[in-house]
Amino acid sequence: MSYSVPLAASELMLEPSELKGVLDLFFRSAPQKIQDAKIFMESGNFTGLSKSMHALKGLALSLHMSRMGELAAKAERSDLLSPESLHEIIRQLEIELHEIQNIVDVYYQNE
User: Fold this and answer.
1) For 19-23, which contacts have Cβ atoms below 8 Å and span 24 or more sequence positions?
2) Is the pTM of this model over 0.85?
3) Distance CA 101, CA 44 (A)
4) d(CA 66, CA 33)
5) Over the Cα atoms of the chain, what is R_g?
6) Helix 46-62 with 16-43: angle, nearest 10 deg
7) Are 41 and 78 in contact (CB under 8 A)?
8) For 3, 15, 39, 64, which has the most beta carbons within 10 A of its beta carbon?
């Protein structure tokens, strides 16, 4: 299921125009959380990686970005994953972030 700004706004009891600022903040912070996860993964700092993914999971789920939240939840449990699986999950997070940002950008351009 792709992201829907009107549905997310409705579920959060906001107008889409009110959600825009929150989404802007999310799209400024989420790429850094993913980048931090990559750095933590490469350095073997799985506690840092888990904390970064926990924060991303919370942000994503609070904005009704369920797939991103699910992926972050998987990455949060990095100690249970193979390095290959973890790399793939982080790659998928980047793709999902990009796709949602495109959906949001198109929505607000047409608003």
Assistant:
1) 20/108, 22/63, 23/63, 23/104
2) yes
3) 29
4) 17
5) 14
6) 170
7) yes
8) 3
